[in-house]
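Please annotate this fold before class:
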Amino acid sequence: MVEFIGVAAAIPQLAKYTFSAFNTLPDLHRRFQKAPKTVNRWQDDVSLLSSLAQYYRINPGLAGQVSVDVLDRFSECAEDLGLQFKKLAILPADGSCSRFKKSIGIIRKEREINQALVSIIQRNTLISSHLLAQPAIIGSANSAQSYLPSRGPHLWAMPISRTSSGVTSITAFEAICSFVGQENLLADLTRMMDHAVGRCVVMAGPSGIGKSYLVREFLCPPRKPHDVTVFWVDATTSDTISTSINTRLRRISLPEVASPSIGDPSAIMAFLESVVLHEWVLVLDNADARSVEGARLTEQLSRSTKGRVLITTRDRHFAFSVAQASNVIEIPAMSIADAKQLLAANSVRRIDNDSGSADLVRYLGYHPSAIFQAARYMTTHYLSSSQLVASLRTGMISLLAVLDLDPTTMTNPGSLFPGLEHTTMATTVARYLSLLSCLDHAHLDNYLLSTIACTPEVKQALALMKSYYMLRPASLRPFLQLDDLVAKLTIAVLYQRADRCQNVVSALDIVAQLLALSADGRQHRPLGPDFEHALCALRALAKFTTEAEVSSATVATAVAVGTEVCRHLVLVGRASEAIDVVEQLLSWGHNTMSSLHQAATRLHSKLGTAYHSVGLFEQAFIITRTALRAQCQLNGNHFDALHSLNNMGVLYQDQGLFLKAEIYHSKALELKQEVFGSQHTETYITLSNLALSLQSQKRFGEAERMHRRALRGRKRLLVSAHPDIYTSLNNLGVVLYSQGRLHEAKGMHEVALTGRETVLGASHLRTLKSKGNLALVLGQLGDNDRAIAMFQEVCPSLKQNAGLSHPETINSYRNAAIFLHREGKFHDAQTSMMEALAGLEERHGKGHEQTFGAHQYIAALLHLQGQLQEALDVAAWLFDMRSEILGNAHPDTECSREHVAQLGAELDASLQGSLTIFSCMN
């Protein structure tokens, strides 16, 4: 039997190398050079397969267990390959021509032969799996060639055999061919087992992290001495303990233990002490407080002189109760390198680029069991890692399908979470896992958890989540995080259940409570995490429920939370996310919202603000105007209507209708002074906006006085680092710049920029706007190099964060082009202006006057570089477009006509000639 096991154990390693050769296509030159080694390797592989085929045929123990046809096909395939290799073998007597021909033949047949080897090895794997499952030839762990199979009642119950001397010893473990990484943990385990205080070592970690597999690898030579007996017990429940013990005792012809008491391993430990003459190790796999009594275990170990106990558990609390802290190993998730290696080792299909495999293992939380199942899924469904992770993210493939889980069979929600399925708390744990997965589960602070844990039962459920590694410390203290894979599985399973609405609504109520406490000033903590929780809860509500499934009160709560979330996201520069979540919410609850007049119009008004922040002024104008009309009908002096009135002025300002903007701002200021008083932050907002409309009409003196009044008032009412103070400083800097007071303007913009970088961050839209304003001032002061450098920082950041078509992005690229032009860097100026043109065309289309202006500037820059033909092409196109849209008598059309004529004359003078014919020049 030893011979069979040894050969069978070599087959997966042979498969690993063969699959590696099959999946790797090196360059032709290297393949040609390695042709002799390749054929020698093939011969070694087939020699091993032929020996195995011969063993299958002559071993009498295999009779009747494997079909003769299967063995015949296996032998024939191996013999056929052997004959091919004899023809391809490069002999010492071969001449250079013969060697060349054979090498070419090897390269041509390389793929075909590799495929044949793969086919034979796969057939052998099936035979080996069948033989290992037969009672007559059990000689190793039933799962020796799989990574992390489904846990059953006899999983990892290792057989022991009676020696001639009557001493029991374990059959030698084979090294697991697909074992990857974790060398440091194996070294720690070896050290602890040699020097453990109390003779008990515990390996703790979440389900699927590879605890049993690590112990299995540890028990393989050379780590385990040959004279140590190992007795492996599945300690999941009292039933599995009894089954494992009695199965082992029957196998070595010893009497069974009559109904071992739950949690009492003393019977098997006493047996080991009396029968085994040397050292022994009792492995209690998947134990916890329900299946093993730590006190009895410790007491029995204290009387042992030869024994040690090695426990694997999912329960952290149990781990530290049965062993000293120095004897507990908590297993982390795999490193990304080990995770990618595990994926490659267990997939024979398509492991594509590093990026795809890295994305997949990251999506699976670096959990070995999930990675192994994903590798199997990729193999059977012919998918690459990139294809699989993309399908998982879009929902085209269910995570449950990849992990081979069937939610329809999970009547007990706790069965999704191994270790908790037999507890009375399984349903409560499942419910609150569902609730937490609706929130920002990567940032769960203690205040939030204490708000959720309003009853002893919920507190116990949260404690169990922490003990079973579902809730663990996050990298950003003091937060906890829900394990990402647990959250994904929770969403995949529990949102198919009837109680999903209750869980989602509970999450929404929690965040509404947190936001209400913040608004009342009763909660002194950072607000950012609360808004992230609210954002996640709103998305879960829109995704996993329907309007008809919830009450009108829930819809009203969602509208109120959505309004606050939208306001916050716009404030922190995430207006695109605000638009997305509010649009989802409006689509989800539009029927009920028609009766929530005031709340719904407030939400629409905030949506208009978000559209304005991303530069979509037309949509913002329509939404804000509609909201204002509805609010005026409800209560014209209500502060919601005043906000919308102010916002209408801002939108008119952005459209260049400065007089209308002044009218709206003046009316809003008048009403706000009546409602809030003249010294209120709301009043100062409108005062600043009115100053901007006056400034646009070149009424700089009035505008400056208003900006200074707003700045003084805000400094008096707000904290020194408030964003509104930096807004006033920025606005005052702009009006000073417009009056030519450049040094004063520079000072204002420098203070505003420094403050905004500190408070809002370097990539916030307002911060980038301040940096652009400072660059303009520096350029006007003659510091073009510094101005250009700042614009080269601002432009890409605006493009990334606000989008190419945002007005601020377009203006920044245009300003950068102007300063580069001044420095004589015409090509760089052209590149910058091309970016501005792309943004203008995306925003307005090709026929807009601003787009025409960008084309004209680009034609001028080409002209300055001496690229006359290219300049003429642009100018001619621009002339035709302006003639068609603006008419021949328009001044811009006349300007284009003159430019075309000038370029044509210069081309003629330089003898370049132009092949372009313009009908307009007739």
Residues 845-922 form one domain. Residues 187 and 472 are 25 Å apart (CA to CA). The beta strands are 160-162, 168-170, 200-204, 229-234, 280-285, 307-313, 328-330, 471-473, 480-482. Residues 96-132 form the longest helix (37 residues).
